[in-house]
Amino acid sequence: MQAVRAAAYGLGSVLIGVSLANRGLSDAAVGAVLASLLAGSALVSVLLARHGDRVGRRRCYRLLLVGMAIAGTVFALTGWLPALILAGLSGTVSTDVVESGPFTSLEQAMLPHTAGEHDPTHLFGTYNTVATLAGSFGALLALAGTSPRWLLAYPLAAAAGLLASGRLSPVVERGHELEEKPLPPLHQSRRIVMRLSGLFALDSFGGGFVPQTFIAFLFTRKYDASPQTLALVFFSIGILQALSFQAAVRLASRIGLLRTMVFTHLPSNLLLIAVAFAPNLPSAIALLLARFALSQMDVPTRQAYVMAVVEPSERTAAAAYTNTARYTTRPIAPLIAGPALRVGLGLPFLIAGALKMLYDAGLYLAFRDVDLAHERP
User: Of the ranges 58-72, 100-114, 342-356, which one carries the lowest mean pLDDT score?
Assistant: First the structure.
């Protein structure tokens, strides 16, 4: 299910940005659309955190797939700004190849229940690798054409997901044993989840200045990059990310989850800042590829880390709250990035890199002494 959805998001990561540029929307309008995509993810993730386990994880999953079908159809068929914003607020359209909103919140909570005795970090590594490879091939589909009509792949992917979701086992639900003794969504781990959420919000605020849809828009605007070039770039990015997920799993087994998150993320942000000073398209692409070879190594380790520091009964809420935190601040960034382009087309990269480096430092200082049982020698 995730692979099919990721393929559609990979195609959308190229075509949505290109179509926003080609439809003649103003910088402010583009920022508003991107902000709606991020705000929708935050809103729906909050609803999942509060009500997801009571409604049922599988039922929520199917509702999201229906929303994805409707939203994708809107982006495919119209350039009317209010419609695009409303579709974005559904929370089911991703600005990146690998979605980290409500779908991921549910999957992140369900995956540990299927791990058995396996290391959850390996499971999350495989999960993200599959998504990224599928998303990369989805981005490559943009070579076939740049018409927004190709975004009708969203309802097709959603339909396939609905069919596959019928095979989800009841084991992925919160569990009948928890209903015998009701607990709030967050109880023992509330404080640590709130601290993580605050830091993730800072990181995501920085990332909101340069989502892949915005990069596609900016490279089209600044370097006159063709959709075909962007498709190849995003395909290459996906391959590098997939390889980095597997490398992250191996590195985490040696130095731990937290160190892997921080020690790979920090240099990637220096490369992100360097993109702002790239004199031409080839150098910008080279720096961007180098950046993405490192920047996503914190994804499987972050997901595994969050699941490791909370109780099993708190996983849906912890995943939803930490993912929601990432989207609470992120919608603000495009609203600032749009006007910032008037100052300099590279300014969003500078702001993003600086904020993300601040997050890296804060995360390491706040959690370096937290003990994870499965990391003990």
Answer: 100-114
At residue 176 the predicted structure's pLDDT band, cuts being 50, 70 and 90, is: very low
Query: What range defines the domain where residue 137 resides?
Result: 2-166+182-375
pLDDT at 377 > cutoff 50: no
Contacts 24+ apart (CB under 8 A), 340-345: 340/209, 341/27, 341/218, 341/221, 342/27, 344/276, 345/218, 345/221, 345/222
Q: How many domains does the chain have?
A: 1
Mean pLDDT value of segment 106-129: 74
Q: Per the structure block, which two tokens stand in for 171?
A: 């084991």
Helix and strand counts by DSSP (H, E) for the chain: 17, 0
Contacts of 31 (CB under 8 A, 6+ apart): 334, 335, 336, 337, 338, 339
Cα separation values, 192 from 106, 290, 363, Å? 20, 32, 12
Residue 365 lies in a domain: yes
Q: What is the sign, positive or negative, of the torsion defined by CA atoms of 263, 256, 300, 228?
A: positive
> Which phi and psi (to 5°) does residue 167 adopt?
-95, 0
On the question of pLDDT at 272 being above 80, the answer is yes
Q: How far is CA 228 from CA 9, 21, 72, 185, 303, in A?
A: 17, 15, 21, 46, 33
Query: Tokens 């912890």 belong to which residue?
Result: 318
The overall pTM is greater than 0.85: no
Lowest mean pLDDT among 56-60, 134-138, 242-246, 327-331: 327-331
Report the CATH number that the domain containing residue 9 is assigned in CATH: 1.20.1250.20
Categorize the per-residue pLDDT at 235 as very low, low, confident or very high, splitting at 50, 70 and 90. confident
CA torsion through residues 107, 296, 20, 134, sign: negative
Within-domain flag for 177: no
Query: Is 173 among the domain residues?
Result: no
The residue-averaged pLDDT of 28-33 equals 86
Q: What pLDDT, on a 0 to 100 scale, did the predictor assign at position 376?
A: 45
Find, among 19, 101, 340, 328, the residue nearest to 210 by Cα: 340
Instruction: Locate 347 and state its tokens.
Output: 């300014």
Query: Which one, of 120, 130, 133, 132, lies nearest residue 301 by Cα?
Result: 120
**27 neighbors 339 (Cβ within 8 angstroms):** yes
* Residue 174 domain flag: no
